[in-house]
UniProtKB/TrEMBL annotation:
It is a multi-pass membrane protein. This is Gamma-secretase subunit Aph-1. It comes from Mizuhopecten yessoensis. It comes from the Eukaryota. One of its GO terms (cellular component) is membrane. The chain crosses the membrane at residues 6-26, 33-57, 63-85, 114-133, 153-175, 187-204, 216-237.
């Protein structure tokens, strides 16, 4: 039973991100490099926030202190990675032009939203991995959650929150990069404030050891914010209802041709 729970929660948390990686990243080596590099910058943010947490001894027991500064450092390193990518644009374009046999796509640089999406996905995957890996290790057993009176929803809620943060980081990456490209700093504020808000909402979960309502108090608002930021990222990337209808129509026509 514990093994089934482990695989179920793992697929909830990483099934959709793995599908995104499989269909949009894995075929292009340059995108894989950007994905790994963005994950490395998230690790640097984690390292700096950990050093600060370790240095400020009186506040080590205050979870909110480490959380707030972790969010700040993550956004600062997201900005550093954005600056690095923009500095590297010309060199990467030269690589694209000289290595056509490697199937590198020039449109990745003319359409800057692609790199923003890849970097956000890398940020989200490494963030999700670090947030749930210890929970998954405990999930294998022996025993299962709830035996000592704890909530039975802990593992499932953790998996859904992890998935939410992976998508949020992906959307935040698109919005954040666009904001700096177009000097629309209100979008930067939206990213930072929403990141801080969703992260602080997870503090409610520490009060949910025997009561489940606090889980919903963090999970539902987090998904509402995820859908709102997803809609904003979709609009920023040039998406529209007309585009969706056209894509569905094209897909239906292609399917009918294959059947014929």
């Amino acid at each position: 039973m514990t093994l089934m729970e482990f695989f179920g929660c793992t697929l909830i948390a990483f099934g959709p991100p793995f599908a995104l990686f499989l269909f949009t990243v894995v075929r292009d080596p340059l995108r894989i490099i950007v994905l790994i590099a963005s994950g490395f910058f998230w690790l640097l943010a984690l390292l700096v926030s950990s050093i600060l947490w370790f240095a400020v001894v009186p506040l080590r027991e205050q979870l909110a202190f480490g959380l707030v500064f972790s969010v700040i450092f993550q956004e600062l390193f997201r900005l550093l990675f954005y600056k690095l990518l923009r500095k590297a644009d010309e060199g990467l374009k030269m690589v694209t032009q000289t290595e056509q046999d490697m199937h590198l796509e020039p449109k990745d640089f003319t359409n800057k939203h692609i790199m923003a999406y890849i970097s956000g996905l890398g940020y989200g995957i490494i963030s999700g991995a670090f947030s749930i890996v210890n929970v998954l290790a405990d999930m294998v057993g022996p025993g299962t959650v709830g035996i000592q009176g704890d909530s039975h929803f802990f593992f499932v809620v953790t998996a859904f929150l992890t998935l939410c943060f992976v998508f949020l980081h992906t959307f935040w990456g698109i919005i954040f990069f666009h904001a700096w490209d177009k000097s629309k700093f209100q979008y930067v504020a939206i990213v930072v404030v929403s990141h801080m808000l969703v992260s602080c909402l997870t503090l409610l979960n520490q009060r949910s050891e025997t009561h489940t309502p606090a889980y919903w108090g963090s999970l539902v608002p987090a998904y509402v914010i995820m859908f709102l930021t997803g809609g904003l990222a979709f609009k920023i990337a040039g998406g529209s209802i007309a585009n969706i209808k056209a894509a569905i129509t094209c897909s239906c026509k292609q399917t009918s041709y294959e059947i014929d």
